[in-house]
Design brief:
This protein is 67% helix and 3% strand. The protein is mainly α.
Length: 373
Amino acid sequence: MLKLEARPQPSKLMSTASPLLALAVTVIIGIGLFALLGKDPVRGLQVFFVEPLKSGYALSELSVKATPLILIALGLAVCYRSNVWNIGAEGQFVVGALFAGWFAMQSGPGLAWMGRGIVIPILLAGMLGGMLWAGIVALLRDRFNASEILVSLMLVYVADMVLSYLVYGPWKDPKGYNFPQTITFDAVTKIPRLFDGGGLRANIGVLIALAAVAGFWAFLFRTYKGFQLQVGGLAPAAARYAGFSSRSALWTALLLSGGMAGLAGGLEAAGPLGQLTPYVPAGYGFAAIIVAYVGRLHPVGIVFSGILMSMFYIGGELAQSRMGLPKSLTGVFQGLLLFTLLAADTLIHYRIRWKQAPKAKPVAAAAAQPKEA
């Protein structure tokens, strides 16, 4: 029978290279999928890995997709390094978009003095919304020992329902021909773009994400608080012995994670969307879990994995429009990448060994043995 046997010392080189190995296996499986669907595998790979990089417009769209993924994954990396399992970043993203959208809709003569500076409180409102939603998870875990996995996941659906209620009801645009959407935000509230003209949608969210990467790297690896969080995640007993507060780690990790997800939601609502609709949830919160793990929970690695994941998003859209493939192919590639990464990590820490099952004694021989008194 096949059994897994723990390796005495996992390879550090393979641990670092496993995301690349997982990507290679994903590409090989993808070639097989394209062939089974009757499509040209070379053309399929070109759509996923070349088209998103071949022009300035393509790179601009890539940045629009990568920015929220990187921001959310940074917050999740802090949680997972702290052994806090926040699965509900999608809900925190949605609530952040709601808070930022509400503030953007308040723009008018009373806030005209702020000019373009109104973007700052809009983004801060998004962060506050995400932190409040994550704070519910922290409160229930802290006070009632509720599972943060279940609570954070269920709150995603609550956030979706709140969004639907608002855009179908109180916040519906009276001049929107009965479509479930808010008013279009004023131009002054839109996130400034990096380039004027040319239809390029890349905005200052890219710069914010890069600054966040540097900030989280410094926090995790150059501050005492970051050290406390990581010790609590790797060795909870040692953290307690050292006097590190698990309660403080829980709140810090979840609030940081929620704040980053809310910031991503604010950037999305006041950036590419420019209004709130039922389609604000884009799956970024769930995809960012894969981004965090493919990036090895390291801020720099998350940048590259975020770019890769955004290529899957764009490639899926192009495969749908140019090759007639289902849009769900994006989710297939994301799932394949995560599955192959988990498989690679398992083989890094364990060997597969064949062990022969012990032979059963013959019934007759067992019956012939004398019984003990």
